[in-house]
């Protein structure tokens, strides 16, 4: 084995903004997990980036000798071993009372409960948590997770979990991708770039401009808007990657979550000389508007609000 370094190395994949994915190099550790997909590459960083871009990916196995990258999901165990191929995304700490864990076991628990639900991601939430996998895969789970095979499926205890927001300005709401806290605030006379607006969100609420991941979330945000104000556009946490403003491929979320839902108003390619907004705005039709062909458009009278969002905190009991 060619593991030379037995220290954890941090890879921080960060774009020049707020969101980032931290990936831990698990030197001297074997990771039991399913493979989401594999492809040929000798580029470790590309392998990590591909994982960073996919919310289902929890880690990677970078098989340098074979020139292959495997994106991993459904992690089951971590064990000390003569291995240096494995990397895992750093997730929020999940404390489950009554469990005394080693630092490595804690990393595993954080990944298994990365979605901060009562059951691990991908499991069915019933009276217990269940997953249809083979007996051997079920027995592969680290003992402390409490998985048992019942003859047809793998069963894990359902956790008691409650969700809360950091302060009372925020409203708790659940969507298919998790629990979040929202606050709609007024922009007032503030001018500037999207970074200015994002700072303002943080200063006022402790959260950042929201990314939007489903029609349900889009509708919920629209419903928080003060409808007594006319032309009340809402600044959202979207930014143009290179100044182009044509379609979804030109944009990314400030928080670096995956752009997996799009609701752009801009259906036709704009003509030259359009006014590209410094920050995209959810218009009163609830579509995302990023430019106008009226050069004299006064965005400051239109973008009256902004939507701030953070992850809810989960408490396991
Ligand atoms: C993540 O990767 C899997 C397998 O390659 C794919 O099916 C899924 O659509 C990807 N998800 C996203 C959000 O890209
Ligand atoms: C959950 O699993 C345990 C152990 O397998 C079992 O005793 C219990 O009846 C199950 N509970 C429910 C609600 O299915
Ligand atoms: C959840 O709470 C109930 C009632 O307080 C308790 O009986 C049960 O053991 C708890 N479940 C877990 C997994 O701790
Ligand atoms: C922001 O811009 C608007 C319109 O251009 C202007 O009326 C307002 O005074 C500006 N706000 C500040 C704080 O300069
Ligand atoms: C946010 O707060 C910081 C520190 O108080 C201040 O320097 C900054 O100007 C504020 N930004 C906005 C946009 O309110
Ligand atoms: C988005 O626009 C680019 C040109 O800027 C074009 O190459 C690409 O095909 C467009 N994508 C979609 C999905 O329309």
UniProtKB/TrEMBL annotation:
Entry keyword annotation includes Cytoplasm: no
Name this protein carries in UniProt: C-type lectin domain-containing protein
Matches recorded under SUPFAM superfamilies: C-type lectin-like (SSF56436)
InterPro entries per the UniProt record, alphabetical: C-type_lectin-like (IPR001304), C-type_lectin-like/link_sf (IPR016186), CTDL_fold (IPR016187)
Organism: Panagrellus redivivus (Microworm)
Coiled coil region boundaries: none
Keyword terms, alphabetized: Signal
Ranges where the C-type lectin domain occurs: 177-289
Annotated signal sequence range: 1-19
Presence of the UniProt keyword tRNA processing in the record: no
Gene3D superfamilies: Mannose-Binding Protein A, subunit A (3.10.100.10)
Transmembrane segments: none
